[in-house]
Design a protein that fits this description.
flat; mainly alpha
Length: 62
């Protein structure tokens, strides 16, 4: 499935949530969709946990 089709489906889901559920439902669907996107990328191996939780490098401190 292409990224354009996935974007179309996500946009339609947000549109339906906004129309039928109001702004709160729109925000909930958008937040859960973003969370699902990052979980999917993590499970595919495109993201690593250490990208988000890396320690500060002492040599970069000024």
């Amino acid at each position: 499935m292409s990224m354009a089709v996935i974007g179309l489906i996500a946009g339609m889901a947000l549109g339906f949530a906004g129309y039928f559920g109001g702004f709160g439902a729109f925000l909930l669907v958008a937040a859960l969709g973003g969370f699902g996107f990052f979980v999917g990328r993590f499970l595919d191996g495109d993201l690593r946990a250490e990208d988000f939780f890396r320690m500060r490098d002492e040599s970069r401190r000024r």
